[in-house]
Write a structure and sequence with these properties.
heteropentamer, A mainly alpha, B mainly alpha, C mainly alpha, D mainly alpha, E mainly alpha, A: mainly alpha, two-stranded antiparallel sheet, 22 helices, 2 strands, E: mainly alpha, Helix Hairpins
Chain lengths: ~500, ~90, ~325, ~110, ~120
Amino acid sequence: MMSAIFANLPALQVILPLLFAPICFLLRKRGAAWLLAFCVSLCTFAVSIALFMQVSAAGPLSYAMGGWDPPWGIEYRVDSFNAPFLVLLSLMFCVTLAFSYKSVEKEIVQPRHALFYSAFMLCVAGLLGIVITGDAFNVFVFLEISSLSSYILISFGKDRRALTAAFQYLIMGTIGATFLLIGIGFIYMMTGTLNMADLAVRLPSVMDTHTVRAAFAFIIVGMSIKVALFPLHVWLPNAYGYAPSAASVFLAATSTKVSLYVLIRFTFTVFGAGFAFGAMPLQPILLVLAVTAVFVGSLSAIFQTNIKHVLAYSSVAQIGYMVIGFALASHAGLSAGILHMFNHAVMKGCLFLVAGCVFYRFRSARIEDFRGLGKTMPWTMGAFVVGGLGLIGMPLTAGFVSKWYLIMAALDHGFVGFLIIAAVLAGSLLAVAYVWRIVEVAYFQAPDEVHENGKEAPFILLVPAWFMALLTLYIGIDPSLVVGAAESAALSLLGSTP
Amino acid sequence: MFLAATLSIMTVMLLALIRAFAGPGLFDRILAVNMFGTKTVLLVAVLSVLGGQPTFIDVAVVYVLINFISIVAVLRFFEFGRREDEAEEGR
Amino acid sequence: MLVATALSCIFVRDLFAVIMVFGLYSLLSAGFFLSLKAPDVALTEASIGAGIAPILMLGTLALTRKRSEPQPRAKKSLRSALLPLVVVSLTGVALIYATLDMPYFADPAAPIHNHVVPRYIEQSGQETGIPNIVTSILASYRGYDTLGEAFVIFAAGLGVLALLGFLSDGSGREYWQFEDTANLRHHAVLHVISKILIPLILLYALYVQFHGEYSPGGGFQAGVIFAVAFILYALVYGLEAAYKIMSPVVLRYMMVIGVLIYGGTGVLCLILGGHYLEYGVLSDYPKHGQHIGIILVELGVGVTVASVMMTLFFTFSGRAKRSVLKKQGVET
Amino acid sequence: MSLFIDIISWACILCGGFLGVTGAIGLFRFPDFYTRLHAASITDTLCAGLIILGLILQAGFTLMSLKLLMLLGIFAYTAPTASHILAKTAFKCGLKPVLYDQKGGGS
Amino acid sequence: MTLVFGLFNYWVAMVLMMIGFYILIASGNLIKKIIGLNIFQTSVFILYISMGKIKGGAVPILTEGTEIYTNPLPHVLILTAIVVGVATTALALALVVRIKEAYGSIEEDDIHEKDGSL
């Protein structure tokens, strides 16, 4: 029995949340729905840990769906690049669910709770499916599952602007997905296969054609929309800003990362770094865009009044860092980018959790609401400070580690590298500005009448927030685990290039 | 012969299409769309029998049903709109 | 023709006409699929693109049309007109650029005809025992994609429910009492015709569902046709009457049951010691097992699609009715 | 015998095609909606009927012709119904037919 | 000349895509946007189905005595994609209804006006 379960772990990873979502949909009682979702999330987490162990012990796993061998059937493939992602996703799944019990109660009307949890599970399942699959078209299908359910999650927001945000996201997201579809169609046309490993084998012979180049461009542009890379980021701030807190925690921490994952996967595994950075002018374009993203994102963040918007714009900037790492295309750069993806997920998760706590108390999360919170809600603000320091990149926090690696990677690139380092440092300074603005309000301004009687957020909300904060600190102090994972991931990506 | 049948149906389709684009009133458009749908079904039927594609006939059956239902839906929509108008005017 | 239709979509101002033209466009493209020897796809595109989608759009239009229509709006700044054009031309250039090296249309030497597919064509007959290759790939070789697809549909149903809600949900109770049969009584002709037609459609849906292994068709198409029959019923006899036959609660359960049939088949395969969705283990003979699996899976898809489509229609038209009521409520 | 059937079926199909074209021309030439509807629906029904009849004769006695028969039945039901409700709704929505003495006032 | 004939189908699909895409991003009306989205997607489907066509290929249903079949794999993919497309459309339409109820308009400009500074 045990061995049967172990043999089918890759399938279970996705199937669990996917199949329990409809069951959850039927549950009338709020508590029951939550409990079911939480149990499923724990199981998913366990599965992902087990997968991670297996992969690090025995190398890449391949699982044939329906028992058909890969180029004909759909293959699930777990290697040292996506196994950590699975862990990250299911970890965020657990943490957000723990948080959502109280938060959802406050932000969403009672009869819709089961719908919320159900959509949430679908979203997780979709993201897991994207990460784990080894089939290009399957990526599209699961991308649509996760995006449809994230539109739903966003539209649960109370503010009417949540609706327009969701609509905007829907339009942009569907354009992105359709571009991806076009790209996949082109490469399918040239090679006749949809399996990623098989594609990688067959693509080099047709690499020089216009079609493949255009396919690459379409996939990159399509996924950049989903990643919210600089000129295509317009949907992100509103979508995260108006979503219910629990949803924005999860989406902010994972959704863009998964899209970036797809981007990296296609670039390195399917097309191969040699093609992507040799034949196509990918590097300069991505670098310029990423650096602009850092500046634009940070500057916009400084001028926002709503904390969720500050965090969302800061996400745009942080995505810039990740893309820089990825665009450097060296082993060090790639591992820095991947490292930052993890660290940012943890830090942003922490910050959005704090925003959710504040929202829970005051039903809004404008900057004024933070007035005096340093005294009234010390624990909440403590977590915020930790996360904020991480964003800035202070030593002893996770942010420092990944920025350090990023700078080290940039050093190999001569003059361009120096420009990048300058950009990273300037971005950090800007981050200081927007984080400080909130911290200043919280600690050095007296609370007004409305907020004077504010008290500490409920314990159950604080636990996940502090868990993430401690994780930030832990990674900052002892980064060996994450760095090891990121480095082996980068190695497997570059190693698999033909 | 086969060609003649196909061609005549094609002509009708084209004319109906032009009417659908140009049609001055909404109902003209609906009429033209309906006619277009019918002719598509006929065309598919002709192709299926004379072109030796027995599977196409299933598609034709679905087309004819869909065509009818969308016409009903459109007209019910109009009625609905009218009732809403009345409700609004009555206010 | 297609190009003309699509172009006219840009220039026709009236939304209603655009929807009609869009329906035409779908029908045309379905015809195009047919001429490219893709009857399954044509069937789906016709029933979904020309059937369900315009009906839903009309429903939305009915809900949104009023009050905003009178003000004519033609103030478009140059910038807002140019930017899309630039973006589109860039995309277009990329697309045309891509075509330059493509294998020619219908060229038998193109890679896609020679790599993975021959195996499907040569062996799917022995491996699954089903003549319709599309069905066997859909349900078995790439069954997992189809599972994802069933869940996408489920997610859409869930989302629409979350956004619009059923008539009978919670406070919506009183709307049940709304009688509009009086309004419908004058459609005597329609009543009689539908009475004859609806059983026919249902029968046909079942045919498409269970004959899908031998002729074009399968779960999706059957589900849509099935739903269309009910939509016709609701259109002709009123929403109320339709609810009596297929109540929202039942639909809700059906949605779930549909996806669970699909997923459950997969889990069953797991329990019997195969891989996920490996139907071969369902019976002593792999071919037989495949057959059982495919039928089950198609059934699951059919149930899901039918119930979700009905749900979509019911929620939209229920919403419409509610808005009418609100106005009449103001009136009295 | 088969030649006889062929001739009949071709005659049917040709007549049908001809009627269809007539109808379409009617759709263009008539002055207002109701006359256009008249032109379209009458020819439509007969045209469809004839063509399918011709096809049935061509197909012989097979599953195909059964389906064609079904198609014919559905056509016979739906096409007039559609025209009927079309006219009815149009009339109720206030679209008036053009009468003899007020020529040129269409739509 | 073979270039033109060989690629004509694809070009049609491309032109359709561009039209759909244009409607999608240029029109201010939300419903029209959705229609544009649909046209865009449908033309991608046409692209896929076109590439599945093979000279002299029969409908992909196994029958005695037929050797060449049209490529069934794109058909399968497009079946999936059509259903995904209709799901997206339905959700988008539901959102439009809600937006209309919240804002009283489905024109993009109006909505931005009503939100004031976003």
